[in-house]
Amino acid sequence: MKGRKPIQDEFTHLAGTVSRQRIWQLRKYAEGKCVICGAGATTAQHCDAHAQQARVLSRETARNRLGCKRRNLNSRSYKIESSRVRDD
């Protein structure tokens, strides 16, 4: 027998319409793991490190979309980022 057997689950039928990366993400989300690295998720979709990145990305995207120039450096996401830099 050559190769591996294909995985048969609730996402198998999406194979022709959705990319394999998206199917991998959906599987990890269903298992309660981070959709980026596969580690245990602490939020709905991400581990601690990637949840932090998602918060900052979301904040910066909204800031650019709304045309804001200033940053609220007292916000939770920026505080977590600066405390990690000091811990290293």
Textual characterization of the structure:
With about 90 residues, the chain is mainly α. The protein has three helices and no strands. The chain has one domain. The longest helix is centred in the middle third of the chain and has 19 residues. The protein is elongated. The mean pLDDT is about 85.
Please sum up the structure shown.
This protein has 3 helices and no strands. It is mainly α.
Features:
single chain; mainly alpha; 88 residues; 49% helix
Tell me the layout of helices and strands.
Blueprint: H1 20-31, H2 48-66, H3 76-87
Series of H and E elements = HHH
Radius of gyration: 18 Å
Shape: elongated
Tally of individual domains: 1
Helical fraction equals: 40-55%
For the largest beta-sheet, the strand count, sense and barrel status come to:
none
Strand content: under 5%
Which regions are unreliable across 5 or more consecutive residues at pLDDT < 50? none
